[in-house]
Amino acid sequence: MKNVQFMEIEGRSFGYLALLGILGAIILVALGAWYVMEHHGHYVTGMNNAVVWGTPHIFAIFLIVAASGALNVASISSVFNKTAYKPLARLSGLLAIALLAGGLMILVLDLGRPDRLIIAMTYYNFKSIFAWNIILYNGFFVIVAVYLWMMMQQSMNKYSKPVGVAAFLWRLILTTGTGSIFGFLVARQGYDAAIMAPLFIAMSFSFGLAIFLLVLMAAYKWTGRPLGDALFRRLKNLLGVFVAGVLYFVLAYHLTNLYATEHHGIEAFILRDGGIYPQLFWIGQIVIGSLLPLLLFYHPSTGKNRTLVGLGALLVIIGGFIQLYVLIIGGQAYPLEIFPGKEVIESSFFDGQVAHYAPSIWEVLLGLGGMAVALIMVALAVKILRFMPTSLADEDVDPHHSA
After folding, report:
1. Considering the entire predicted model, what is its pTM?
2. Which of 4, 57, 90, 188 could bond 387 through an S-S bridge, CB–CB 3.0 to 4.6 Å?
3. Distance between CA 183 and CA 194 in Å, rounded?
4. What would the pLDDT profile of 275-319 be if each residue is shown by its tens digit?
5. Residue 61: exposed, middle, or buried by beta-carbon count in 10 A (0-12, 13-18, 19+)?
6. Residues with Cβ < 8 Å from 87, sequence gap 6 or more?
């Protein structure tokens, strides 16, 4: 790799200012949505006593999981010593921090009483996976920030590899913790599975790299900086592998559940009888979010077209949201088995009934606000600090490149 030069973007164009304006407007609308929910209570949302994790949680968990995966490019350069990815490491770390901040903003505002976060941060119940996640999220901010410092200050570059290894291990633990929130929930038939942790890790790789690829394409196109075909092809192929990995874990999850008689009910609900949820699973998650992107990435004609590859990355993101919706909302909508193996003769608490959930506009707006916060952080940071190389042309970043 040649001596890559990093430079701030100029950030004076109409397009850049318009982008900041649009993202800022989305954030303001999201704050308005939060105010409505805080003022009127969760009554105005689609959530209820059965479905307590709604659309804001879908956005938040997606961003938190993607944050871990966005760091993947930096990890490949530092931990696995792949020099072609090294120029991308700073942007990778920045995007990871921004995505996590956006996701946590949604969670904090969805609490209804954001000030209650102080209690969560000062009183720990270590039997709860949520208490561990407070430590994991804060630790992620600190480690990735130090990692960026090691990469961006020349005199500290020698420490970037050990800190990169620490960041790599921490993000694996973080995503394991997020997946374990669901894996440890034995009361829900759709969650109670040890495979949730590796599934979430695979999802983080896929979602994070899809966002990274789109941000990279947009940033270099809008600033007129070169982005080489060889590097772009590496990222595209890697994303395809991650999408296939998620598909494998989803297949293993459902085959395992289908083997166990106790899970036949939830499997029939998600795969066949659950109304909107089977449609979302087969059309949204499997076809749109997995098979179609793989076709776009690996078909000899579409795989060389950047627009279509970008479309594939966008479909991965859309499919990721749908996957989390089916997993989280569908898992709650399926009736709880309060007394396993027993028949409830009479109940006034809707036992045995499928819960209804329809997302409200306030929930969607709050979720979009979290995404806007992540993107505006990246947009402002690349103007202030040197996160982006002036060139990602193949001859500048790939030592094995031959013109």
Report:
1. 0.94
2. 90
3. 5
4. 999 999 999 999 999 999 999 999 999 999 999 999 999 999 999
5. buried
6. 1, 4, 389, 392, 396, 397
Backbone angles phi, psi at 130, to 5 degrees: -70, -35
Structural contact between residues 141 and 100, judged by C-beta atoms closer than 8 angstroms = yes
What confidence tens digit (pLDDT) does each residue in 336-373 have?
Answer: 877 777 777 777 677 778 899 999 999 999 999 999 99
User: For residues 123 and 352, what is the distance between their CA atoms, to the nearest angstrom?
Assistant: 36
DSSP codes, 330-354: HHHHSPP-SSTT------SS-TTSP
Mean pLDDT of the chain: 91
Classify 261 as helix, strand or coil.
helix
What six digits make up the tokens of 210?
């899809």
pLDDT recorded at residue 240:
97
Position 337 scores a pLDDT of 78
Which pair of tokens denotes residue 126?
């270590």
The torsion angles phi and psi of 348, rounded to 5 degrees, stand at -105, 15
In this structure, the number of other CB atoms found within 10 A of the CB of residue 32 comes to 14
Between helix 55-70 and helix 129-152 the angle, nearest 10°, is 40
Residues whose CB falls within 8 Å of the CB of residue 33, separated by 6 or more in sequence, listed in order? 361, 362, 363, 365, 366, 369
Tell me how crowded residue 333 is: count the other CB atoms within 10 A of its CB.
22
> Are 30 and 372 in contact, with CB atoms under 8 Å apart?
yes
CA separation, residue 354 to residues 57, 305, 360, 371 (Å): 20, 44, 19, 31
Reported as type and span, the H/E element at residue 283 is none
